[in-house]
Amino acid sequence: MLGKRLLFVLTLCAFSCSKRHSTGIEVIGHAGFGLGTPNSIYHSNSAEAVGLAVKTDQCSGFEIDLRISYDSVLFLVHDSNLNDNTNGSGCVENTSSKELSSLRYKGFQKERICSLESISEYLMFGKKVFLDLKAFNECDSKISDPSLWDQLLTKLNLKNKEGIFLMVNNFKMLDILGNSGWKVILSSDDIPTIESAYEQYPFLCGASIRQSKIDKKQIEEWREKGKTTYLYDVRAPSEMKQTRKMNPSGIFSDDVFGAIIELK
Q1: Count of beta carbons in the 10 Å neighbourhood of residue 247
Q2: pTM of the model
Q3: What is the CATH number of the domain that holds 258?
Q4: Would you say 134 and 67 are in contact if contact means Cβ atoms under 8 Å apart?
Q5: Domain limits at 191?
Q6: Which of 49, 55, 82, 96 sits 20 to 30 Å CA-CA off 31?
């Protein structure tokens, strides 16, 4: 615990001493405040990680992963299978909301798994929120109904909230949710797929793509068409420097403080 606090303080000091020229690139906390990073302060997709993103100056917002429980409640969980990262077993989609709410992550602080409704206060802070809809049930090899996602998110009165975007990775989800009035981002590492989506669905706001799969020219072409581009898998210092040159709309960062230092 002491080591993590020290890292936190040192990072803040480094940030406060930074004189680097600012960019307009948004820094978005990936899965709250970072996914799969050993020195993360909190576990990804935890209420604590989201709260830290909300309270961090110059962090433009956060991305979180959502899954639907057996009884149709939205939970912040990245993987369908609970075995690896929690003290539970089986898949989220086959587990009741009551049981999910009792589970904890295996990380150092053992944060509770939380529902989207339980962190609703963090959706109202004026920062951008990206809801990554994880629709595949690994245990049953099934994809959840896009109309159910629409119904559950609508119940939380999120559709007309400024700065809330849904992230999807297939055209069926894109079609139903986009035509229902949601602001949608397509997640794909394939540029022709994204181009096709832009042609078929003019309402599509933008795309999320791995940094190594795109270049500055393509980002600029899409920007001229009014489309945003968010990069992910930007971790090494060399990748961060390359991101400055590429000038995307933003990045989903696993090292929020480092990204702020480099990009803000």
Answers
A1: 15
A2: 0.91
A3: 3.20.20.190
A4: yes
A5: 20-263
A6: 96
